[in-house]
């Protein structure tokens, strides 16, 4: 929050924090008295986001995860990019900070939180760094609260189906602490469960089977090279790149297994 209050901008903005029963927040509330504090009894990120949306008074809304640190021009870039564009959504850049220099701990940044790629291929974007007009929620609706993962992707894809344009802005950057390899392995079942539940109501069994098979396949070398370049890992050795490629394939197979369990059980 200190990074939010130190933003370099002439725009006025409010900071809303939705707490879902975190431990020992009283000292933080005392330090940041200008923050609008809301409470949620449900530990669901989309419930928290919806509470914040309903409370917000601004025309433009920005979403950021508690673990993120925005760059000093984050607010200025986001507001100025959307102010005159009612049907535009802005997805910012995640500068993923790995927990260690071990190759396996670079995998999270390599495979996830790549909004440039997500926007280019219309995959949908996440709400850890997202800017949108509040009026968009009148048309698209609030976030689904049925599952605890993947609902921001579904919301942004629905917005695109209603003619909203999602653009990527690298200057709207946040630092994001990446998950370690072990943490990533632990979180995969929850993430894929959310995806599987959404697919169950929207895709046929054949389409879900195709999705499962695609996750069994390794990354194409062209795709892998683009990811390596995006995360500025070109300086690592060829052997290390091969090791990362194999780890990425293993992670995709873990995702396929988790999807199979959730989708067809």
Defining key terms:
single chain; alpha/beta; Spore Coat Polysaccharide Biosynthesis Protein SpsA, Chain A; 2 domains; two-stranded parallel ribbon; 12 helices
Structural write-up:
With 265 residues, the protein is an alpha/beta fold. The chain folds into two domains: 1-179, Spore Coat Polysaccharide Biosynthesis Protein SpsA, Chain A (Alpha-Beta Complex); 180-265, no CATH class. It is built from twelve helices and seven strands. It has helices at residues 2-5, 26-31, 45-55, 74-82, 107-111, 115-120, 136-140, 151-161, 181-202, 205-216, 221-230, 238-264; strands at 16-19, 36-39, 60-64, 69-70, 88-97, 129-133, 165-177. It has a five-stranded mixed beta sheet with strand order 3-6-5-7-4. A two-stranded parallel ribbon has the order 1-2. Helix 2 (26-31) links the parallel strand 1 and strand 2. Helix 9 packs across helix 12 (238-264). The N and C termini lie far apart (42 Å).
The helix fraction, in percent, is 40-55%
> SSE order in H/E notation?
HEHEHEEHEHHEHHEHHHH
* Major pleated sheet: 5 strands, mixed
**Shape annotation:** globular
CATH class designation of the largest domain: Alpha Beta
Number of domains: 2
What is the alpha-carbon Rg in Å? Answer: 19 Å
Please give the CATH architecture of the largest domain: Alpha-Beta Complex
Class by SSE composition: alpha/beta
CATH topology of the largest domain: Spore Coat Polysaccharide Biosynthesis Protein SpsA, Chain A
Uncertain parts? none
Q: What's the tally of helices?
A: 12
Give the total of beta strands.
7
Instruction: Write down the overall mean pLDDT.
Output: 91
Portion in beta strands: 15-25%
Sheet with the most strands: spatial strand order: 3-6-5-7-4
